[in-house]
Amino acid sequence: AKTAGGGIFTSYRPQMQEGLVERLELENDLRAACENHDLRLHYQPTIDLDTNQVVGFEALVRWPHPTRGMINPLDFIPIAEATGLIVPLGRWVLHEACRQAVEWSKAADGRPLKMSVNVSVRQFDQVDFAETVAAVLAETGMPADRLCLEMTESVLMTDTEANLEQLVRLKALGLTLAIDDFGTGYSSLAYLRRFPVDTLKIDRSFVERLGGVLTGDTALTDTIVRLGKSLGMATVAEGIEEFGQLAALREMGCGFAQGYYFSRPVPAQEAGRLFLEGADT
Ligand code: C2E
Ligand code: CA
Ligand code: CA
Ligand code: CA
Protein backbone atom coordinates (compact mmCIF):
# COMPACT_ATOMS: atom_id res chain seq x y z
CA ALA A 1 0.00 0.00 0.00
CA LYS A 2 2.85 2.38 0.78
CA THR A 3 4.52 2.23 -2.63
CA ALA A 4 1.46 2.35 -4.83
CA GLY A 5 0.40 5.69 -6.27
CA GLY A 6 2.76 8.15 -4.61
CA GLY A 7 3.65 11.55 -6.04
CA ILE A 8 0.95 14.06 -6.35
CA PHE A 9 -1.68 12.38 -4.19
CA THR A 10 0.61 11.70 -1.24
CA SER A 11 1.47 15.35 -1.02
CA TYR A 12 -2.19 16.25 -0.82
CA ARG A 13 -3.93 13.76 1.40
CA PRO A 14 -1.83 10.81 2.46
CA GLN A 15 -4.55 9.36 4.71
CA MET A 16 -7.20 9.44 2.08
CA GLN A 17 -4.93 7.73 -0.41
CA GLU A 18 -3.99 5.05 2.09
CA GLY A 19 -7.69 4.46 2.67
CA LEU A 20 -8.42 4.18 -1.02
CA VAL A 21 -5.57 1.77 -1.75
CA GLU A 22 -6.51 -0.33 1.24
CA ARG A 23 -10.07 -0.44 0.05
CA LEU A 24 -9.05 -1.48 -3.47
CA GLU A 25 -6.90 -4.24 -2.00
CA LEU A 26 -9.75 -5.41 0.16
CA GLU A 27 -12.06 -5.34 -2.85
CA ASN A 28 -9.67 -7.51 -4.88
CA ASP A 29 -9.19 -9.89 -1.98
CA LEU A 30 -12.94 -10.16 -1.54
CA ARG A 31 -13.45 -10.91 -5.22
CA ALA A 32 -10.85 -13.68 -4.95
CA ALA A 33 -12.38 -15.00 -1.73
CA CYS A 34 -15.80 -15.24 -3.40
CA GLU A 35 -14.40 -17.02 -6.44
CA ASN A 36 -12.35 -19.46 -4.35
CA HIS A 37 -15.18 -20.05 -1.86
CA ASP A 38 -13.00 -18.85 1.00
CA LEU A 39 -15.92 -17.32 2.89
CA ARG A 40 -17.50 -19.20 5.79
CA LEU A 41 -20.87 -19.22 7.48
CA HIS A 42 -21.42 -19.10 11.18
CA TYR A 43 -24.80 -19.92 12.63
CA GLN A 44 -26.63 -18.40 15.56
CA PRO A 45 -29.44 -20.49 17.04
CA THR A 46 -33.02 -19.25 17.25
CA ILE A 47 -34.80 -20.39 20.40
CA ASP A 48 -38.53 -21.03 20.62
CA LEU A 49 -39.51 -19.34 23.89
CA ASP A 50 -42.41 -21.74 24.44
CA THR A 51 -40.32 -24.89 24.31
CA ASN A 52 -36.78 -23.57 24.91
CA GLN A 53 -35.68 -25.58 21.89
CA VAL A 54 -33.31 -24.62 19.12
CA VAL A 55 -35.68 -24.44 16.16
CA GLY A 56 -33.38 -22.87 13.64
CA PHE A 57 -30.42 -20.67 12.85
CA GLU A 58 -29.50 -17.38 11.28
CA ALA A 59 -26.63 -17.75 8.81
CA LEU A 60 -24.00 -15.02 9.24
CA VAL A 61 -21.16 -14.75 6.76
CA ARG A 62 -17.52 -14.64 7.89
CA TRP A 63 -14.37 -13.80 6.01
CA PRO A 64 -11.20 -15.41 7.31
CA HIS A 65 -8.64 -13.18 5.57
CA PRO A 66 -5.19 -14.69 4.97
CA THR A 67 -3.30 -11.78 6.55
CA ARG A 68 -5.86 -9.59 8.30
CA GLY A 69 -7.57 -12.29 10.33
CA MET A 70 -11.32 -12.64 10.58
CA ILE A 71 -13.06 -9.69 8.94
CA ASN A 72 -16.41 -8.58 10.33
CA PRO A 73 -19.33 -8.56 7.87
CA LEU A 74 -20.01 -4.94 8.76
CA ASP A 75 -16.58 -4.19 7.24
CA PHE A 76 -16.98 -6.10 3.98
CA ILE A 77 -20.72 -6.34 3.21
CA PRO A 78 -20.77 -2.62 2.33
CA ILE A 79 -17.87 -3.20 -0.11
CA ALA A 80 -19.68 -6.20 -1.56
CA GLU A 81 -22.79 -4.06 -1.97
CA ALA A 82 -20.96 -1.15 -3.59
CA THR A 83 -19.17 -3.40 -6.09
CA GLY A 84 -22.07 -5.70 -6.87
CA LEU A 85 -20.12 -8.66 -5.47
CA ILE A 86 -22.99 -9.09 -3.02
CA VAL A 87 -25.00 -10.79 -5.77
CA PRO A 88 -22.73 -13.85 -6.25
CA LEU A 89 -21.72 -13.72 -2.58
CA GLY A 90 -25.36 -13.69 -1.51
CA ARG A 91 -26.19 -16.58 -3.77
CA TRP A 92 -23.38 -18.59 -2.25
CA VAL A 93 -24.61 -17.79 1.29
CA LEU A 94 -28.13 -18.85 0.37
CA HIS A 95 -26.97 -22.08 -1.21
CA GLU A 96 -24.60 -23.02 1.60
CA ALA A 97 -27.14 -22.22 4.33
CA CYS A 98 -29.87 -24.29 2.65
CA ARG A 99 -27.51 -27.18 1.94
CA GLN A 100 -26.46 -27.18 5.58
CA ALA A 101 -30.04 -27.01 6.87
CA VAL A 102 -31.03 -30.02 4.78
CA GLU A 103 -28.02 -31.98 6.03
CA TRP A 104 -28.72 -31.23 9.72
CA SER A 105 -32.40 -31.96 9.37
CA LYS A 106 -31.64 -35.33 7.76
CA ALA A 107 -29.19 -36.17 10.53
CA ALA A 108 -31.96 -35.40 13.05
CA ASP A 109 -34.41 -37.84 11.43
CA GLY A 110 -36.17 -35.08 9.56
CA ARG A 111 -36.76 -32.74 12.49
CA PRO A 112 -37.59 -29.43 10.80
CA LEU A 113 -35.03 -26.66 10.94
CA LYS A 114 -35.73 -23.08 10.02
CA MET A 115 -32.85 -21.29 8.30
CA SER A 116 -32.73 -17.51 8.11
CA VAL A 117 -30.59 -15.77 5.52
CA ASN A 118 -29.87 -12.04 5.26
CA VAL A 119 -30.64 -10.42 1.94
CA SER A 120 -29.26 -7.05 0.80
CA VAL A 121 -31.36 -4.54 -1.11
CA ARG A 122 -28.95 -4.94 -3.98
CA GLN A 123 -29.82 -8.67 -4.24
CA PHE A 124 -33.51 -8.05 -3.81
CA ASP A 125 -33.40 -5.53 -6.66
CA GLN A 126 -32.15 -8.10 -9.16
CA VAL A 127 -35.04 -8.87 -11.49
CA ASP A 128 -34.24 -12.58 -11.35
CA PHE A 129 -33.86 -12.78 -7.57
CA ALA A 130 -36.94 -14.95 -7.04
CA GLU A 131 -35.73 -17.33 -9.77
CA THR A 132 -32.34 -17.49 -8.06
CA VAL A 133 -33.98 -18.44 -4.78
CA ALA A 134 -36.16 -21.04 -6.52
CA ALA A 135 -33.08 -22.52 -8.17
CA VAL A 136 -31.22 -22.75 -4.86
CA LEU A 137 -34.19 -24.48 -3.21
CA ALA A 138 -34.29 -26.99 -6.05
CA GLU A 139 -30.52 -27.57 -6.03
CA THR A 140 -30.36 -28.18 -2.29
CA GLY A 141 -33.69 -29.91 -1.74
CA MET A 142 -34.57 -27.36 0.91
CA PRO A 143 -38.32 -27.22 1.60
CA ALA A 144 -39.33 -23.62 0.87
CA ASP A 145 -41.29 -23.18 4.09
CA ARG A 146 -38.13 -23.76 6.11
CA LEU A 147 -36.33 -20.81 4.57
CA CYS A 148 -36.71 -17.31 5.94
CA LEU A 149 -35.31 -14.30 4.12
CA GLU A 150 -34.40 -11.36 6.33
CA MET A 151 -34.63 -7.89 4.86
CA THR A 152 -34.30 -4.49 6.45
CA GLU A 153 -37.07 -1.95 6.45
CA SER A 154 -35.36 0.00 3.68
CA VAL A 155 -36.45 -2.69 1.21
CA LEU A 156 -40.01 -2.50 2.35
CA MET A 157 -40.13 1.22 2.81
CA THR A 158 -39.59 1.77 -0.86
CA ASP A 159 -43.23 1.32 -1.53
CA THR A 160 -43.10 0.72 -5.25
CA GLU A 161 -45.06 -1.69 -7.39
CA ALA A 162 -41.79 -3.38 -8.37
CA ASN A 163 -40.93 -4.09 -4.74
CA LEU A 164 -44.38 -5.37 -3.96
CA GLU A 165 -44.30 -7.68 -6.99
CA GLN A 166 -40.90 -9.00 -5.99
CA LEU A 167 -42.18 -9.78 -2.48
CA VAL A 168 -45.23 -11.51 -3.89
CA ARG A 169 -43.03 -13.62 -6.20
CA LEU A 170 -40.88 -14.64 -3.26
CA LYS A 171 -43.88 -15.46 -1.09
CA ALA A 172 -45.31 -17.54 -3.91
CA LEU A 173 -42.30 -19.86 -3.56
CA GLY A 174 -43.64 -20.72 -0.10
CA LEU A 175 -40.89 -19.21 2.01
CA THR A 176 -41.22 -16.74 4.88
CA LEU A 177 -40.12 -13.12 4.98
CA ALA A 178 -38.81 -11.27 8.01
CA ILE A 179 -38.19 -7.59 8.62
CA ASP A 180 -34.73 -7.33 10.15
CA ASP A 181 -33.75 -4.68 12.70
CA PHE A 182 -37.40 -3.77 13.06
CA GLY A 183 -38.01 -0.40 14.66
CA THR A 184 -34.79 1.27 13.49
CA GLY A 185 -35.99 2.48 10.08
CA TYR A 186 -38.53 5.05 9.12
CA SER A 187 -41.46 2.80 9.83
CA SER A 188 -44.75 3.48 8.29
CA LEU A 189 -47.21 1.07 9.77
CA ALA A 190 -49.19 1.04 6.55
CA TYR A 191 -46.60 -1.00 4.71
CA LEU A 192 -46.83 -3.79 7.28
CA ARG A 193 -50.34 -4.54 6.13
CA ARG A 194 -49.58 -3.99 2.49
CA PHE A 195 -46.58 -6.28 2.24
CA PRO A 196 -46.68 -10.05 2.77
CA VAL A 197 -44.33 -10.18 5.75
CA ASP A 198 -44.41 -13.04 8.28
CA THR A 199 -41.94 -12.11 10.98
CA LEU A 200 -40.69 -9.06 12.87
CA LYS A 201 -37.14 -9.20 14.17
CA ILE A 202 -36.97 -6.75 17.04
CA ASP A 203 -33.72 -4.84 16.84
CA ARG A 204 -31.08 -5.36 19.50
CA SER A 205 -31.21 -1.69 20.47
CA PHE A 206 -34.65 -2.28 22.00
CA VAL A 207 -33.66 -5.48 23.76
CA GLU A 208 -30.58 -3.74 25.16
CA ARG A 209 -32.74 -1.29 27.07
CA LEU A 210 -34.92 -3.98 28.66
CA GLY A 211 -34.38 -4.41 32.36
CA GLY A 212 -33.29 -0.77 32.58
CA VAL A 213 -34.82 1.71 34.99
CA LEU A 214 -36.82 3.69 32.47
CA THR A 215 -40.24 2.16 31.96
CA GLY A 216 -40.55 3.79 28.55
CA ASP A 217 -37.84 1.48 27.26
CA THR A 218 -39.92 -1.56 28.09
CA ALA A 219 -43.08 -0.02 26.70
CA LEU A 220 -41.60 0.36 23.24
CA THR A 221 -40.58 -3.30 22.96
CA ASP A 222 -43.90 -4.37 24.39
CA THR A 223 -45.65 -2.34 21.71
CA ILE A 224 -43.65 -4.00 18.93
CA VAL A 225 -44.44 -7.48 20.26
CA ARG A 226 -48.12 -6.61 20.42
CA LEU A 227 -48.08 -5.07 16.98
CA GLY A 228 -46.58 -8.27 15.58
CA LYS A 229 -49.17 -10.38 17.36
CA SER A 230 -52.11 -8.30 16.24
CA LEU A 231 -50.93 -8.59 12.64
CA GLY A 232 -50.49 -12.34 13.01
CA MET A 233 -46.72 -12.14 12.67
CA ALA A 234 -44.07 -14.06 14.55
CA THR A 235 -41.79 -11.97 16.74
CA VAL A 236 -38.09 -12.69 17.17
CA ALA A 237 -36.00 -10.67 19.62
CA GLU A 238 -32.34 -10.32 18.72
CA GLY A 239 -29.34 -9.57 20.89
CA ILE A 240 -30.46 -11.08 24.19
CA GLU A 241 -27.47 -11.06 26.51
CA GLU A 242 -28.97 -11.21 29.98
CA PHE A 243 -31.54 -13.24 31.81
CA GLY A 244 -33.48 -10.10 32.73
CA GLN A 245 -34.03 -9.28 29.08
CA LEU A 246 -35.20 -12.81 28.38
CA ALA A 247 -37.62 -12.71 31.32
CA ALA A 248 -39.07 -9.40 30.15
CA LEU A 249 -39.55 -10.71 26.59
CA ARG A 250 -41.20 -13.88 27.83
CA GLU A 251 -43.55 -11.79 29.91
CA MET A 252 -44.47 -9.81 26.80
CA GLY A 253 -45.17 -12.99 24.88
CA CYS A 254 -42.37 -12.67 22.35
CA GLY A 255 -42.18 -15.93 20.38
CA PHE A 256 -38.53 -16.46 19.55
CA ALA A 257 -35.13 -15.25 20.66
CA GLN A 258 -31.52 -15.01 19.62
CA GLY A 259 -28.51 -13.66 21.44
CA TYR A 260 -25.25 -14.30 23.21
CA TYR A 261 -27.25 -15.36 26.28
CA PHE A 262 -28.07 -18.56 24.38
CA SER A 263 -25.17 -18.76 21.97
CA ARG A 264 -22.92 -16.61 19.83
CA PRO A 265 -22.88 -17.37 16.13
CA VAL A 266 -20.78 -20.54 15.90
CA PRO A 267 -19.06 -22.52 13.12
CA ALA A 268 -21.11 -25.14 11.30
CA GLN A 269 -19.82 -28.14 13.23
CA GLU A 270 -20.75 -26.66 16.58
CA ALA A 271 -24.13 -25.45 15.32
CA GLY A 272 -24.91 -28.94 14.05
CA ARG A 273 -24.18 -30.32 17.49
CA LEU A 274 -26.46 -27.75 19.13
CA PHE A 275 -29.29 -28.76 16.84
CA LEU A 276 -28.81 -32.51 17.21
CA GLU A 277 -28.62 -32.32 20.98
CA GLY A 278 -31.99 -30.60 20.90
CA ALA A 279 -30.14 -28.01 22.95
CA ASP A 280 -32.47 -27.08 25.76
CA THR A 281 -31.24 -23.77 27.01
P1 C2E B 1 -27.88 -8.71 11.63
O1 C2E B 1 -28.57 -9.39 10.50
O2 C2E B 1 -28.70 -7.78 12.46
O3 C2E B 1 -27.26 -9.87 12.52
C1 C2E B 1 -27.15 -9.82 13.91
C2 C2E B 1 -25.77 -9.40 14.36
O4 C2E B 1 -25.77 -9.24 15.78
C3 C2E B 1 -24.68 -10.42 14.06
O5 C2E B 1 -23.46 -9.71 13.82
C4 C2E B 1 -24.59 -11.19 15.38
O6 C2E B 1 -23.34 -11.81 15.57
C5 C2E B 1 -24.80 -10.09 16.35
N1 C2E B 1 -25.36 -10.58 17.61
C6 C2E B 1 -26.15 -11.65 17.82
N2 C2E B 1 -26.49 -11.77 19.13
C7 C2E B 1 -25.89 -10.74 19.76
C8 C2E B 1 -25.87 -10.32 21.15
O7 C2E B 1 -26.45 -10.93 22.05
N3 C2E B 1 -25.15 -9.20 21.41
C9 C2E B 1 -24.47 -8.50 20.45
N4 C2E B 1 -23.78 -7.42 20.82
N5 C2E B 1 -24.49 -8.87 19.15
C10 C2E B 1 -25.19 -9.97 18.81
P2 C2E B 1 -22.52 -10.08 12.57
O8 C2E B 1 -22.47 -11.56 12.40
O9 C2E B 1 -21.24 -9.35 12.78
O10 C2E B 1 -23.29 -9.48 11.34
C11 C2E B 1 -23.49 -8.10 11.23
C12 C2E B 1 -24.42 -7.76 10.11
O11 C2E B 1 -23.85 -8.09 8.85
C13 C2E B 1 -25.75 -8.50 10.16
O12 C2E B 1 -26.60 -7.88 11.08
C14 C2E B 1 -26.20 -8.38 8.73
O13 C2E B 1 -26.81 -7.13 8.52
C15 C2E B 1 -24.88 -8.41 7.96
N6 C2E B 1 -24.69 -9.77 7.43
C16 C2E B 1 -24.16 -10.86 8.02
N7 C2E B 1 -24.17 -11.92 7.19
C17 C2E B 1 -24.73 -11.49 6.04
C18 C2E B 1 -25.04 -12.12 4.77
O14 C2E B 1 -24.82 -13.31 4.55
N8 C2E B 1 -25.62 -11.33 3.82
C19 C2E B 1 -25.92 -10.01 4.05
N9 C2E B 1 -26.49 -9.31 3.07
N10 C2E B 1 -25.65 -9.40 5.21
C20 C2E B 1 -25.07 -10.13 6.20
CA1 CA C 1 -30.41 -10.55 10.30
CA1 CA D 1 -30.93 -7.90 12.84
CA1 CA E 1 -28.51 -5.48 13.00
TrEMBL record:
The uppermost taxa in this organism's lineage are:
Bacteria, Bacillati, Actinomycetota, Actinomycetes, Micromonosporales
UniProt name for this protein: Diguanylate cyclase (GGDEF)-like protein/PAS domain S-box-containing protein
Domain EAL residue range list: 23-279
Query: Which residues, if any, are the signal sequence?
Result: none
